[in-house]
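Morning F.,

Quick status update on the modeling queue. The single chain you submitted on Monday has been processed. Sequence for confirmation:
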Amino acid sequence: MGHTRIGQQVPPRLLTHNAHAYGAAYQQAFADLAAAHRGEPLSRIVPLLRRAADQALLGFTAADLREQAEAISTGQLYELRITLRG
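Structure tokens below.
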């Protein structure tokens, strides 16, 4: 399970919401990567996650992305907890 702290303006970009024009939401991008890249090395998955996070304007750390990539690679469920900063 991951945990990150983000500003209050970010949730629409994180969660799938058809009214926003920010490209693919991170949630959908993560699901797509998980479906397509199971069993692949972290070195291949992390840059894809970084691109998706950058497009969604999410400031995940390298450690956050590595943890997410490990879950994708191994097929483990991954729960991301988000704390909104005021």
